[in-house]
Amino acid sequence: MADACAWPPVNALVEWPDTDEDVVRLLAAEWGEAAGHTEPLSRLDLGPIGAAWADPPGQAFHGRMTALGTAAGEVGTRMRALQTLAAAFATDVTSAKQTIVDVINANIPLYAKAAQLDPAVAASTQDRFVTEIAAWLNAYLASLAGHGPLPPPFVPPEGPAEEEENWGKTIGDAAGVVSAVAGTGSDAAPYLRFATDQFTGNATNAGTAAKFVQGGASMFAQTPEFYGAASTAS
């Protein structure tokens, strides 16, 4: 049976990021705090030490302190870099989760509408939506991980806005024809597959599918009453 909730089937194909972005932001802040403790060491003025302690031990101490200050500056710089990376990662995780939510939610109305189609095609139509959504989300998540380019913005499949009511009725009528043809025997399968492929948010294609199946039905000696189901799609 077709379902009106798109979340479970999409979640089954898309791995939800399990990283806690709040913890990562805290880590970024702590890297920044640590850098703040080391960076001042690189700015110490050690000149007076060298001037006041001019013998060999004093100069050796001055040299070691200078090297320590330089190292502290390098460590601070690296900590700042880690802070930046952690903050960016937290932002990516937040964006990934929000994008998953937004894309799925944008498709729920159409997904729910597909559940109202004839049982012969409702499930397969919803499967196509789920596959399309999941494929885009997986490509998006892969791009965030550096495995491929960022995909173009996702465009939810939808019927013509000005014919929304007719779209639903047309597809429903066409689905009735397909269902009837499906009962004629295995030879009707190509017509069923063709029509089902047209039921993804396009009123014109749905009407074409109905006409195609109606014409094919004559090959299987259907009665005139059979054609009534497709009359509104003609």
Content-based structural category: mainly alpha
- Total of DSSP H or I helical runs spanning 4+ residues: 8
Mean pLDDT: 74
Poorly predicted regions: 159-172, 181-196, 198-204, 206-234
Radius of gyration: 32 Å
* Terminal CA distance: 28 Å
Strand content: under 5%
Q: Could you tell me the number of beta strands?
A: 0
Helix content: 55-70%
What are the secondary-structure elements, in order, as H or E? HHHHHHHH
The backbone outline, from C-alpha atoms, is rod-shaped
Could you give a short account of the major beta sheet?
none
Descriptive overview:
Helix 6 (164-182) packs antiparallel against helix 7. It is built from eight helices and no strands. The two termini are 28 Å apart. With 234 residues, it is mostly helical.
Write the layout of secondary structure elements.
Layout: H1 7-11, H2 21-38, H3 47-52, H4 56-114, H5 119-144, H6 164-182, H7 189-197, H8 203-217
Helix pairs in contact: 2-4, 4-5, 6-7, 6-8, 7-8
